């Protein structure tokens, strides 16, 4: 069993468990290599590692409850509370979704998405079948459901293609329905009533040409669609329900939207739109959206130049979190400073695992930052490595630290570790 190491002063109460070895990240952020989940009850923390190792630990003691080997890189985790199962999403040859007993780790069921999206045609990470999102909840009849989105990329000369499938599973792993397209899904969200499932597509290169699809959760039938209406294949970065409204971060025009039923636009805000600075046209992608109780937060990512990916300039709204009220008026904004791989949220609480800022290469950007959706910055825990994943439930916050070695320094900062603390 891995050694548990306490860190910080008594007030912080952050505990750390080494996770073994992983290649240090470099200046630019890497693909998703780790995952973490906290059971809704808060008593179990589960980590997924790049080598497929999945470990469930008791939240209080951090003692290992069980360990399993997932068939693929373990890059996503969700819990089916009613079924007492932990679901792991994979990126690899099979693109496996598997459910493991929360108490014992025994495999309950397994589904290989490569059977639908196809097998990799090239032996590189980007071509592997990839389960990009998991979402759990109750349907309109009160039955527990798991929703998942899987995709695969391929390229033949100048022709680029995506193959993707959205799934609904029951608690026993039976497929209730599927929805297939030739676009690249990036995000899922289920409304509070379990009646609608929103699917965000960030790359649309083929016949499917819309960034947001809303499906009937019970049947998988199409309810309505929306698109930012921009040129090119970039469309949506994230989606989040709040009642009948849906917050959408747009990769197409770098704005944030709040939509009503049927896709009616309630408001839109500029987030990191194209801006000319010192002769360059710069922008940043709004990668994350979270809506709750009449408020919406958006998080932006790295700066890019319209004429090429290399630039010395920085967009003024890169690596920024901004929250808005029900009318689209700004409540507050703050810097996250580093790239946020995934935003964790629970009610009014936001947790941003911040990784490197490759244009600045400042280790002070490495942190787990916390925000209150109404009032803004709440707390910041700086770490030596980069924070690449986070989860929050009940009073527990868990994050993954990965080592990083900037290309022009030669020093490895941090280590591969699980960090667990309390929100209070």
UniProtKB/TrEMBL annotation:
SMART domains: PQQ. Residues 51-226 form the Pyrrolo-quinoline quinone repeat domain. Gene3D superfamilies: YVTN repeat-like/Quinoprotein amine dehydrogenase. InterPro entries: PQQ_b-propeller_rpt, PQQ_rpt_dom, Quinoprotein_ADH-like_sf, WD40/YVTN_repeat-like_dom_sf. SUPFAM superfamilies: Quinoprotein alcohol dehydrogenase-like (SSF50998). This is PQQ-binding-like beta-propeller repeat protein. It comes from Haloarchaeobius amylolyticus. The lineage of its organism: Archaea, Methanobacteriati, Methanobacteriota, Stenosarchaea group, Halobacteria.
């Amino acid at each position: 069993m891995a050694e548990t190491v306490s860190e910080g002063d008594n007030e912080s109460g952050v505990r750390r468990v080494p996770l073994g070895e992983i290649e240090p990240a470099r200046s630019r952020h890497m693909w998703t290599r780790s995952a973490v989940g906290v059971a809704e009850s808060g008593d179990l923390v589960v980590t997924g590692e790049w080598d497929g190792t999945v470990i469930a630990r008791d939240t209080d003691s951090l003692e290992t409850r069980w360990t399993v080997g997932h068939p693929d890189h373990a890059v996503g985790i969700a819990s089916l509370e009613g079924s007492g199962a932990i679901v792991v999403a994979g990126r690899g040859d099979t693109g496996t979704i598997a459910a493991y007993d929360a108490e014992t780790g025994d495999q309950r069921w397994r589904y290989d998405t490569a059977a639908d999206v196809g097998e990799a045609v090239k032996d590189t990470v980007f071509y592997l079948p990839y389960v990009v999102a998991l979402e759990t909840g109750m349907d309109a009849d009160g039955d527990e459901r798991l929703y998942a989105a899987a995709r695969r990329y391929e390229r033949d000369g100048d022709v680029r293609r995506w193959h993707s499938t959205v799934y609904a599973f029951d608690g026993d792993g039976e497929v209730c329905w599927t929805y297939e397209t030739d676009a690249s899904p990036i995000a899922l969200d289920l409304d509070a009533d379990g009646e609608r499932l929103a699917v965000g597509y960030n790359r649309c290169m083929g016949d499917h040409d819309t960034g947001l699809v809303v499906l009937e959760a019970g049947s998988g039938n199409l309810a309505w669609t929306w698109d930012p209406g921009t040129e090119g294949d970039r469309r949506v970065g994230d989606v989040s329900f709040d009642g009948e409204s849906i917050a959408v971060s747009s990769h197409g025009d770098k704005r944030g939207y709040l939509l009503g039923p049927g896709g009616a636009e309630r408001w839109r805000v500029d987030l990191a739109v194209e801006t000319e600075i010192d002769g360059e046209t710069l922008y940043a992608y709004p990668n994350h959206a979270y809506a709750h109780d009449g408020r919406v937060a958006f998080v932006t990512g790295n700066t890019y130049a319209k004429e090429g990916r290399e630039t010395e300039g920085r967009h003024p709204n890169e690596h920024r979190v901004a929250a808005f009220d029900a009318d689209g008026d700004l409540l507050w904004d703050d810097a996250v400073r580093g790239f946020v791989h995934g935003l964790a949220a629970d009610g009014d609480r936001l947790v941003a695992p911040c990784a490197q800022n490759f244009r600045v290469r400042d280790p002070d950007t490495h942190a787990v930052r916390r925000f209150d959706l109404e009032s803004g910055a709440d707390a910041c825990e700086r770490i030596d490595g980069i924070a690449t994943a986070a989860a929050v439930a009940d009073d527990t916050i868990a994050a993954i630290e990965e080592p990083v070695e900037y290309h022009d320094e030669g020093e490895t900062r941090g280590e591969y570790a699980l960090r667990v603390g309390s929100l209070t």
